[in-house]
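Late entry, written up from scratch paper. The run itself happened at the end of the previous shift, but nothing got recorded in the book at the time, so transcribing now.
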Amino acid sequence: LKRKLFYHLTVMSFSPPTAAPSAPATKAPRTPRTRPPRPTAETAAPGESPYWVRAYKGQLIQCMSFIDGVKYPMDHEVSREELRRVTADDIVSFFNYKTYGTTTPGPDDTPSKLRYFTLKFSKKAINYFMPDKGKWNDVKKR
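Output as recorded:
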């Protein structure tokens, strides 16, 4: 204990003064990083889709391939008539298959294939292409 106290008093307290700190060097202001603008529906080149439409279309093609039982290529154009005949039960079966691996999950099944936010994105992507969205359908009562 005496050694520690002696060391502290001699070295720490009576050490020679250090040079005064110099003024901090001024940095040049950072220039903001510029990224090329992402194409939107208005700025996309003719015949080119915005980036998010291409991502959405992949989900739609997966869904339509599941419903029709046909493997569609990514450049397949889905007609409005095809989209109109898609029912809510078809979409639920597709999401159950993507999430659980079966179209009719039981009460003991756990969603192991897909996470919540991926499923939410798929729903949003498929809904983007649906005709008559937001309107009440008197025939189907939904």
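Helices lie at 2-12, 51-68, 80-84, 88-100, 116-129.
(Scratch paper discarded after transcription.)
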